[in-house]
């Protein structure tokens, strides 16, 4: 393999102008970028296609190494790093395939992919988390043909060759953030009844937002309700902090971007206020920092809907937000992967000039640098 280096803007080693709906996962020694929707010039504008592209970012060389393509190209998939350093790509969609039940395993030694155990349910935009024992839990689906598909969870145990049923959510049909705290899996809000999204005579219809919280009981493979969120939140971000608490930030409420945040304590099972950000934004990244803090980076600023490079840091002791070190360029819809002590690889799209199309580039962000 040949390393790909570049100066700013540091473009990733894909052939398209930019990519969307890819996965970025931290792995031993770096990060893995896989799949996505790749955009190419067509003489008038740009056309898209599902890509099987993949690349490894080597932390020791701070450079990308292109990999052999995926056996089955995909986008809108989930990706998790397993305890042994492998990466599992889960479900997604591809050209003419609205949802996939296949999985792919990336082997770090061979730097290649092979087919993994197929899901019980085909899923587009699934949500997957790893549990302390190394198992993988997956749920969620974007499509509404089977309104309960996304509510039926699946579990893959370490070393198993097949997924097994892992219970159905009690109320939530379109889940909010899914996070792990110790042996518990938590769903923070979402939409809680069974009809889908529709546009009828210009009017948008959607299931009502729910403040309910659900917890998965590992022993009984069962979901149960827990203490509700303080606010209804459409499409918020959520992460598990280093002390096991879960932080949920932002989202929408009746078309208004929220600046508020709240934190869930595993000891009490209750949510409480976690402070207010200075600026309302959407399509931002929420990242847990090793010292217990959290960072909100980039996003689209409410009002102008322009991408921003600004960062806000959450402080657990005071439950307040303060300005942090900004990104190198303004981004929205980007992803971060921890690639070293206090170092994060950022991959996402930015616009070099107002009239230029987006480009997918990377940078290193160090909160304390």
TrEMBL record:
<keyword id="KW-0677">Repeat</keyword>
<dbReference type="InterPro" id="IPR015915">
    <property type="entry name" value="Kelch-typ_b-propeller"/>
</dbReference>
<dbReference type="Pfam" id="PF01344">
    <property type="entry name" value="Kelch_1"/>
</dbReference>
<keyword id="KW-0880">Kelch repeat</keyword>
<dbReference type="InterPro" id="IPR006652">
    <property type="entry name" value="Kelch_1"/>
</dbReference>
<feature type="region of interest" description="Disordered">
    <location>
        <begin position="350"/>
        <end position="369"/>
    </location>
</feature>
<dbReference type="InterPro" id="IPR011043">
    <property type="entry name" value="Gal_Oxase/kelch_b-propeller"/>
</dbReference>
<protein>
    <submittedName>
        <fullName>Kelch-like protein</fullName>
    </submittedName>
</protein>
<dbReference type="InterPro" id="IPR037293">
    <property type="entry name" value="Gal_Oxidase_central_sf"/>
</dbReference>
């Amino acid at each position: 393999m040949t390393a790909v280096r570049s100066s700013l803007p540091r473009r990733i080693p894909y052939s398209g102008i930019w990519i969307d709906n890819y996965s970025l996962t931290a792995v031993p020694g770096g990060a893995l970028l896989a799949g996505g929707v790749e955009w190419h010039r067509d003489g008038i504008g740009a056309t898209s296609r599902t890509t099987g592209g993949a690349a490894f970012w080597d932390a020791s060389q701070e450079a990308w190494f292109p990999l052999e393509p995926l056996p089955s190209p995909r986008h809108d998939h989930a990706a998790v790093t397993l305890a042994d350093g492998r990466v599992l790509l889960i479900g997604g969609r591809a050209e003419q395939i609205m949802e996939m039940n296949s999985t792919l395993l990336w082997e770090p030694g061979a730097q290649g992919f092979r087919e993994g155990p197929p899901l019980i349910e085909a899923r587009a935009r699934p949500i997957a988390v790893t549990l302390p024992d190394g198992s993988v839990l997956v749920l969620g689906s974007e499509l509404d043909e089977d309104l309960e598909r996304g509510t039926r969870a699946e579990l893959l145990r370490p070393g198993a060759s097949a997924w097994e049923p892992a219970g159905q959510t009690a109320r939530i049909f379109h889940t909010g953030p899914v996070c792990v705290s110790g042996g518990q899996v938590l769903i923070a809000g979402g939409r809680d009844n069974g009809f889908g999204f529709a546009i009828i005579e210009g009017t948008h219809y959607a299931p009502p937002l729910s403040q309910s919280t659900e917890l998965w009981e590992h022993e009984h493979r069962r979901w149960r309700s827990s203490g509700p969120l303080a606010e209804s939140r459409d499409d918020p971000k959520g992460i598990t902090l280093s002390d096991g608490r879960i932080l949920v930030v932002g989202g929408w409420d009746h078309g208004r971007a929220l600046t508020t945040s709240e934190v869930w304590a595993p000891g009490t099972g209750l949510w409480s206020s976690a402070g207010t950000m200075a600026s309302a934004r959407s399509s931002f990244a929420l990242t847990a920092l090793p010292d217990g803090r959290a960072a909100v980076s980039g996003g689209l600023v409410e009002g102008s809907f322009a991408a921003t490079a600004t960062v806000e840091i959450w402080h657990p002791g005071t439950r307040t937000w303060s300005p942090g070190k900004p990104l190198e360029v303004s981004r929205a819809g980007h992803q971060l992967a921890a690639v070293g002590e206090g170092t994060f690889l950022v991959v996402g799209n930015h616009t070099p000039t107002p009239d230029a199309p987006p480009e997918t580039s990377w940078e290193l962000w160090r909160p304390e640098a």
